[in-house]
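Preliminary data (for renewal application), flavin-adenine dinucleotide complex.
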Amino acid sequence: MREEIRKALQEIVGAKNCRDQLIDLVSYSYDASDHAKRPECAVFPSNTKQVSRIMELANKHRIPVIPRGAGTSLTGSVVPVMGGIVLDLCKMNRIIDVRIADRLAVVEPGVVYGQMEKELAPHGFFFPPDPASSQVCTLGGNVATNAGGMRGAKYGVTRDYVLGLEVVLADGRVMRTGTRCMKSASGYDLTRLFVGSEGTLGVITEITLKISPMPKAVKTALAHFESLEDAGKSVTDIMHSGIIPSVLEILDENTIGVLRERAAMNIPDIRAMILVETDGYTDGEASFQMDKIVEIFNRHGASFAKIAKTAEETEELWQARKSAGSVAAQLRPNNVSEDVTVPMSKVPELLTRISDTVRRYGLPFVIFGHAGDGNLHPRIMYDKSDPEQVEALERAVEDIFKLACDLGGTLTGEHGVGLAKAPFMHLEHDPVAMQTMKALKETFDPNNILNPGKMGL
Ligand SMILES: Cc1cc2nc3c(=O)[nH]c(=O)nc-3n(C[C@H](O)[C@H](O)[C@H](O)COP(=O)(O)OP(=O)(O)OC[C@H]3O[C@@H](n4cnc5c(N)ncnc54)[C@H](O)[C@@H]3O)c2cc1C
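Predicted structure:
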């Protein structure tokens, strides 16, 4: 880092908030993916004015800036592939306002999802997307990746809850988008443009979120199936029934096999498992929906279907789903978890075709995920010190992307594009769409300093 730039950054954020010791550079070189590259420094702004001045400086000197939340990205989206400044937003972590009467909350981007949950719970409200990384990831990261989770089937994803933003643009100008109203038909939807933009268009410095009343009653059930087709038909029938479960998770036969062998779980040798939750304002409401769903399971030949009656039983039914990822990860030193998504009716076909394809590469894999919104997580285990395994993994992952796109799906339902999926964007987006995305990037960031090298732009 040039001395004049270091001095200017120190002048903006203070010397202790501008770090470039080796330990800092190594810490900020990676995220939760396998990608890594060191930045030149990491800075910790504490307000919008400081972010604006940093951007102005970086733009003038053409220095890359990588906005960063908690660094839990699974796609390399915070890895500074072109060096530059990592802008760590963890110090901008105030919950500015919670307005229950207006059904909204105004927050800074560094607020951790779990912190927000705690703040809203006493009001009987919640912010639904619920990514599995919720205890560490930030709301800024959630907005920038359009994060989702297990409640997606009923409650949607982060995009459905962002009403407005404050964003610092590449040249340091500050822009407000959206509204604090529940509806607005005013102008282009700039808010949505920034949701899922992965730090490539601007730095999000304030978020206005829609919040929801927390359901008071939840029912949980688990079903086993001797055939994947029967499990698939159950999912389709649930969708036709008019009931929208709050959780609808499917585990494939590989996952079940790994749980049986590696975790000695007491599960029969079945082909698929479905975990489902319903919720509502009253116990009766949640139970009524769950009874209908269990009827559907039984109609399609479930070999086992149980509704939990106690908190302990609920925990027990969740055990397989909650352990699936970590148990499978023990099979090899490294693993990659994808998040392809297809129209819900195509989930059984995607499961079968991924299995048939990935099996050919000889690497262990499991598939589980959110059948309720079509988002599957094929997880492939490998050893990155073995070039043959790395090549097999890369080819298997490419095949998975092609399969999902062939079925009218998307490369990513929740983790984003980052570096990992950048080379495959053309599989999903036609050349005109890619050109339009590039043109937008050039408009917002003509010097390509904001998180450069990401999203195939
Ligand atoms: C164990 C584990 C489980 C996970 N489970 C899920 C899951 O269920 N669902 C899911 O969606 N994801 C999941 N993820 C992925 C990850 O947690 C999400 O993508 C999350 O939204 C990232 O938040 P973060 O604060 O860590 O952001 P980071 O990883 O720091 O950043 C992610 C992206 O957002 C950009 N960004 C961050 N803050 C800002 C800002 N203020 N302004 C502009 N750009 C910004 C970064 O530049 C980067 O491109 C999981 C990850 C792990 C490790």
